[in-house]
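Changelog note: in this version the structure field was regenerated for every chain. One regenerated record is shown below for reference.
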Amino acid sequence: MDTQSSQISSSQGFADGQNSAAKESKMSVNSLIHWRDPKKSGVVFGLSLLLLLSLAAFSVISVVSYLLLALLCVTITFRIYKSVIQAVQKSNDGHPFKALIEKDVSIPPETFRKHVDTSLAHINRALKQMSHLFLVEDLVDSLKLAVVMWLLTYVGAVFNGITILILADILLFAVPPVYEKNKTQIDQYIDVVRTQVNNTMAKLQEKLPGAMKRTKTE
């Protein structure tokens, strides 16, 4: 009995840890895209945009190689500089990266399992949704996906994947601040569009054979 209760409490604690970690990561992402800390958001936005622009101009292997080469140049130069300073001053400070070398960089098993379980939950949810859409469990939802895929064929004819990622990165950091400043006006337009879309979908559902089934399940 004690073993079962301990297992239940440990599983509950693990679930609570998962939820708290997810909330913390979500809050950190929200603070970044809403520019709560302009310096940190600017650094993240600049580095992500620079990386995507580099991938647009060069291959992935070249970008990774240049990044690692630049990192090595910085660390080797700093190592030589500190060695020269120690030799001139005749000091014995030791390795300049000693604190980082002695730091434990291994991933704890609990953290690894937590992220694996979280990823597995998202994968299972995505597989279930794909089965719902591609096996036409609901005709309206499958038709929505078909329309979206059809529109994406035109988007793909104009933009490649990297260009779309660059635009998404810019919009990710540009839209939230603009929305916060003009929330009332934007919400009014969104409500108008949502109402029109809902009315159109309601009329469409009345004419499709899957509409009756969907109404009953809802």
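Spot check on this record: DSSP finds nine helices and no strands in the chain. Confidence is low (pLDDT under 50) at residues 211-218.
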